[in-house]
Amino acid sequence: MQKALFYIVAGENEKERAVLGLNVAKRSHEFKRFADVKVIIHGSSQKLLLDEDKSVKEVVDYLIGNRVIDSACAFVAKKLSIEEKVVSRGVELKPSGERLSALVNDGYIPITF
Questions:
Q1: What is the CATH number of the domain that holds 76?
Q2: Would you give the DSSP letter of residue 111?
Q3: Domain count within the chain
Q4: Using one digit for the tens of pLDDT, what is the confidence trace for 13-35?
Q5: Closest by alpha carbon to 58, among 10, 19, 86, 91?
Q6: pLDDT at 11
Q7: Measured in whole angstroms, how far is the alpha carbon of residue 33 from the centre of its chain?
Q8: Measured between alpha carbons, how far is 99 from 51 in angstroms, rounded to an integer?
Q9: 50-53, long-range: CB within 8 Å, 24+ apart, which pairs?
Q10: What does pTM read for this prediction?
């Protein structure tokens, strides 16, 4: 059984795509479709971590609560001025390129949304 890395990189106008990726990651974790599931959130998709829409918040809360989200990009969070809010939600900020390479080198297969 493989390990999956959901790399959420959808742009500003692609909220639906990013939410789809988060939902697939959640369901993959819930139903144990992979040996392990991790999520890295990069780019403006990080705003979803702070989204108050009930359906988005439920997915994000599940992923955070179950430690599925590995990290969000530190550089982008700083650029968007949301570092403190993201960290207060329980998500670590790390360089996403470094995390991506570390997880791929650890056997995770990247799936992008």
A1: 3.40.1260.10
A2: E
A3: 1
A4: 899 999 999 999 999 999 999 99
A5: 19
A6: 84
A7: 17
A8: 24
A9: 50/82, 50/85, 50/86, 50/89
A10: 0.94
